[in-house]
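Marked as duplicate of an earlier ticket. Keeping the data here for the record.
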Amino acid sequence: MADYALHMKIVGFLHGLYPKVRISLHAGELAPGLVPPEGLCCHIRLAVEVAHSERIGHGVDVMHEDRPYELLKEMAAKHVMVEINLSSNDVILGIAGKDHPFPIYRKFHVPVALSTDDEGVSRIDMTHEYVRAANTYALSYADLKQMVRTGLEHIFLPGASLWREPDAFTRMAAACAPDAAGAAKPSATCAAFLQSSEKAQQQWELERRFREFEAGFAHIYGAVDVGLRDIEKFGRALDLAHADDDSHGHAGGGSEVAAQGGDLGVRHPDIAGVPGKQVLDPLPWVVAKSISVHQSALCQADSSWIA
């Protein structure tokens, strides 16, 4: 507490020297009663404005910050993603349900992705967090899909995004615009683009897995509308390679990267000339049958991050 502002200035100074280094920080993992009221004023704001953090782990006390609505709008405009740790925040801070800022972040269009914080400590996995979020906040499949894509959009892998606009998953980059997202055989132009970007390769693989997953429900639902009864199935095999991130860099969520349970990497199949690559996956793998889908963002796999 005493030196937090100074620490943010140090990170901000280093950012000026090394502007290409990506920054993800824990901020706002606080609640009233844990610190004096003045201690809730500005941790998230300092991380965003002074330290130039691109991702915020927790962000629980955002509504106790000075001018919170202004800060929420700023985070949305800057596309600063918040790593949401529902179980951890409940157990450690006593903040849950309607008292958690998760719905407020979504209302103000701040990018969010689910995270475990620390699976080993909390004795949970990403499936648990998906089920909890869906049950607590009545999330739809589309909501879950948005968060999965958001986690990958804010990964620190090198290369351009598959998506034309940040956090808007409606139009792909020009090179892949004519293609169907996640198609087994992208066009030559799109394949060349994917070859140039590790990030886009992961995003393309995510879309492929979405297509495969959704196809498995089409004969039941017609159009895909996966209900709560399927969410546990939707995430049950996350343990295959759950890698959610956390800005402390120890095993666990949000800016905190995880890869719990021993599986730190997954080899992706070749995509039309784009070789499959062993990576520490940025996201957990949401699996139905043998299908997995990336979720939350990666830190430890990146060589350039500060926490």
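See parent ticket for discussion. Residues 4-110 form one domain.
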